[in-house]
Amino acid sequence: MKKIVIVSGLPRSGTSMMMKMLEAGGVPPLTDAERVADSDNPKGYYEWERVKKMPDGDTAWLADAAGKAVKVISALLKALPDDYDYDVIFMERALPEVLASQRKMLQNRGTEGDTVSDEQMATLYERHLVAIRGWLDEQPHMRTLYVSYNDMLEEAAPHIARINDFLGGSLDSPAMAAVIEPRLYRRRAP
């Protein structure tokens, strides 16, 4: 059976861009198009809403995910059942950029953010990332490749080569590179 490709990371860490890259490279995405493109993600979100229901036991959809890519934020990785094999591409992005991007997205939606400061949120995210990395390292049914969003935008080719190798070497690397749009890299770390 083909593995399920999981694209993960913190929210606003480049997961949608990676999903689009994989689609261009030849890995079909598992999406439902419920969350449409907007000014925060002009190329789309590439989400499958049922992913959010995994903690409640809704995992039957995984039977249709073999050979496809599905986006699962890092907080939901532990809800993936261990009766499947997964290749996890874990997106990493500078925390100040993640926080700035989240703040801007909340402003664009007209919703107030939490009363948690950026410093507190950064601490929570750092702890979460340490814990989830440790957990991923212990999962025999998961292989993980960590990809820096920041570094990939600086020089994509070596990262695309690593991703292609990780997923078996048959991806269309030029098509993946063509997806990357540096003009959409708007929330840069100071």
Describe this structure in words.
Helix 1 (15-25) links the parallel strand 1 and strand 2 (69-71). The protein has one domain (4-184): Rossmann fold. The chain has helices at 15-25, 95-109, 118-137, 149-154, 156-166, 173-179, and strands spanning 4-9, 69-71, 86-92, 142-148. The chain contains six helices and four strands. The protein is 37% helix and 12% strand. A four-stranded parallel sheet has the order 2-1-3-4. With 190 residues, it is α/β, with parallel strands linked by helices.
Number of E-type strands: 4
The total domain count is 1
Q: Into which percentage range does the β-strand content fall? A: 5-15%
Outline the biggest β-sheet.
Answer: 4 strands, parallel
CATH topology-level name? Rossmann fold
- Given the structure, what is the number of helices? 6
Low-confidence stretches: 37-42
Question: Which CATH architecture is right?
Answer: 3-Layer(aba) Sandwich
Radius of gyration: 16 Å
Secondary structural class: alpha/beta
**SSE run:** EHEEHHEHHH
> What value does the average pLDDT take?
85
Helix content: 25-40%
Provide the CATH top-level class.
Answer: Alpha Beta
- Write down the overall geometry: globular
Amino- and carboxy-terminal Cα gap: 45 Å
Strands ordered across the widest β-sheet = 2-1-3-4
